[in-house]
Amino acid sequence: MKYGHFDDERREYVITNPQTPWPWINYLGNEDFFGLVSNSAGGYAFYKDAKFRRLNRYRYNNVPMDNGGRYFYIKDEDTIWSPGWKPCKTELDKYECRHGMSYTQIAGAKNGIEAETLFFIPLKTWAEIHKVRLSNTTSEVKKIKLFSFMEWCLWNAEDDQNNLQRNLSTGEVEVKGSTIYHKTEYKERRNHYAFYNVNAPIDGYDTDRESFLGLYNEFSAPQAVLDGKPTNSEAHGWSPIASHYIEVELQPGESKDYIFTLGYIENPEEEKWESKNVINKKPAEAIMERFNTVEKVEAALADLRSYWDNLLGKFMLDSNDDKLNRMVNIWNQYQCMVTFNMSRSASFFEVGIGRGMGFRDSNQDLIGFVHQVPERARERIIDIASTQFPDGGCYHQYQPLTKRGNDAIGGGFNDDPMWLILGVVSYIKESGDFSILDEMVPFDNDMSLAKSLYDHLTISFNHVVNNLGPNGLPLIGRADWNDCLNLNCFSTNPNESFQTTENNTEGSKAESVMIAGLFVVYGQEYVKLSRRIGNDAEADRAQAEVDKMVAAVKARGWDGEWFLRAYDFYGNKVGSDENEEGKIFIESQGWCTMAGIGKEEGMCEKSLNSVKERLDSDYGIVLNNPAFTKYVIEYGEISTYPAGYKENAGIFCHNNPWIMIGETEIGRGEEAWEYYKKICPAYLEDISELHKTEPYVYAQMIAGKDAYKPGEAKNSWLTGTASWNFYAVTQYILGIQPDYDGLKIEPCIPADWKGFTVKRQFRGAEYTIKVINEAGVNKGIASLTVDGKEIDGNVVPIFESGTYEIVVTMG
Ligand code: GLC
Ligand code: GLC
């Protein structure tokens, strides 16, 4: 069953039934100021950090689902309704939500009144625009009452829910004209306030929640709306809100537009006040002024559209498959930008409080985003590397507002340093900017400890080399990429998190075959990079370490039909046929086949065949098999999840592309493509009621074959799945790979594809790459021409400007 459809022309997903199986959301904002908005206008806005600078309250895990947002109520005689269906939930005559590239439009109609709302954040602006157009489609004059409503969050979203004994006394507002200002704590340590304005005279307002809503009313039936008049309340403590009230008279056929602006202001210390306790509103008024007419708002929206035209113009696919085109050209790239911006902080599954920018997550997010705005990727790399420790280890996350690392979600994950190499080489290959390697980058944000970024890479590489276990394989530390394979934890206390509890690495023999594969892949990249910059001695040294690792995996990391996953604390095998449960895991199959370990000996092919046989399912490849059915104390969190969910045999979509890439390494185009389609949201639209999450973005996890309800997805939007799938499909299936010396072309596709065309902007030039597969092969290039002239090999050179026609004939 479907709840809407794609409109590719406008790059929108159009929801026509508001009762989606889960709120289907979108993101507003591209830099610094962001908003989340659901298909019924739920969600919130924040400045840089969803924990420390949240503008409005949203109630996670609430009943009914999706409470809090930018709500509008229309009172038309005795009928009260909302254009987004919620919160009133009055049945609408018409409902349509269009989620587009950084904007959302929600339209509702009832009894001859149409209300169209448009939500977006103009470029380089710390404010959300909510444009409301009310139209009278009847032949009579209509008099209706419009109420806006949102509830202020007292800035720190965590404290806002916890510290009620203080917070219920701190709230402060000011009202001036049609603007409600939220200034809680502004007179002490804060230099920021927020405002909610409308560009028209108002007929009243409320700023106190209880006065507007009534203490025991639901959001669906605020007392002021029921009464048809606001109370002009002034909040002192309790829960400050912002609600405007406007009496609207519409002639037959008439429309009126109202522009609401929800903004965030920071004032320098000396300019905080206009007079005693009266905030300096000048900067807020300047923002309102910029968007106080429909023309200005439309111009800002047009700018936003051309911003996205430009970004999405960097990689454009024309294939025979609409679903593939829309994922590659629109939604997957869009999700990559969102994950780049949010890391794992704020979604409808991540509450914006606990998880900041992850070290490993942010490096991986880069690979799906770097072609869009390489300069921002550069800045991100420096921020991430600045939190590294001098020995190469890492804080697992940093807070975006302060850019300081913290161990709130643990530390000591021994895969972390390797991902920095991935981030950096991806950036250089895209941009050609080797100068980043010379940047002086601090350790633990301490500039007195700074070394060059290249030194950070060396130290990252060495972190693995310096932490090998008894089999010559990398020690796992707290865990590797799989946060839930906690081989050094032994937790018996349900009150502690596996991620932050004691990490008993003392005397541990726990080694990771996944990190071994990762090390071979990015160790080789480090070798290549070192040679490129003329550091041959270092390249030779590093190559020798990589070779040793390859040998160690072949000797001690192979189980006969697949790669082992790990050795546990005691040195016992994990992910072996000898084990009763968890005999085979996906991660080491992915990384060791991507690394090509034992390819000549047939290990890669065997490993991938085992994946197909044991891990593949109707909805994707599960993480491990058989699922754990009992708690294994020496494995930790992985065995706490019910079978088929999350890291215990769920389809953890992030790692499926590792197998796709592995398949392309051995030339199996059909398999890679089948795996791609299985988890790709656009192909799952018809089963939306099962899949549950948005059909336009990837989810982190789909319940696996051992689950109660296989195929049901969770944790959409913020997942490494976005970047890895984009990377796998564009660089390994379509096979367009940015490299130091040009664009390397190496498609691996189903044999019955006749070909496809990609337009790719790269290092200042535009390449139109036409791939022809009349020969019906999976992989292999017979010839490659640039503007009609055949070239040797499969790397299209860097031209720096101009447009070029590339024809690739497979065979
Ligand atoms: C989550 C984490 C990521 C981790 C993955 C597997 O997605 O954000 O860092 O690698 O789970 O445990
Ligand atoms: C839990 C989740 C995992 C996540 C980790 C860190 O272990 O299962 O996906 O990466 O928490 O927050």
Compact description:
By secondary structure, the protein is of the alpha+beta class. Helices cover about 25% and strands about 25% of the residues.
Q: Any idea how many domains?
A: 3
Can you tell me the CATH class of the largest domain? Mainly Alpha
Strand content: 25-35%
How many helices? The count is 19
Shape: globular
Secondary structural class:
alpha+beta
Tell me the strand order in the biggest sheet.
Answer: 1-2-9-10-11-12-19-16-15-14
CATH topological fold name of the largest domain: Glycosyltransferase
- What is the CATH architecture assignment of the largest domain? Alpha/alpha barrel
Care to count the β-strands?
Answer: 45
Radius of gyration: 28 Å
Helix content: 25-40%
Quote the distance from N terminus to C terminus: 41 Å
Major β-sheet profile: 10 strands, antiparallel
Distinct small-molecule ligands in the complex: alpha-D-glucopyranose
Q: In terms of per-residue confidence, which ranges show pLDDT below 50 for 5 or more consecutive residues? A: none
Average residue pLDDT? 97
GO molecular function: transferase activity
Protein name: Glycosyl transferase
Keywords: Glycosyltransferase, Transferase
Pfam families: GH94_b-supersand, Glyco_hydro_94
Summarize this structure as a short list of keywords or feature phrases:
811 residues; alpha+beta; Beta-galactosidase, Chain A, domain 5; Glycosyltransferase; Maltose phosphorylase, domain 3; 3 domains; 6-stranded antiparallel β-sheet; 45 strands; globular; binds alpha-D-glucopyranose; GH94_catalytic; GH65_N
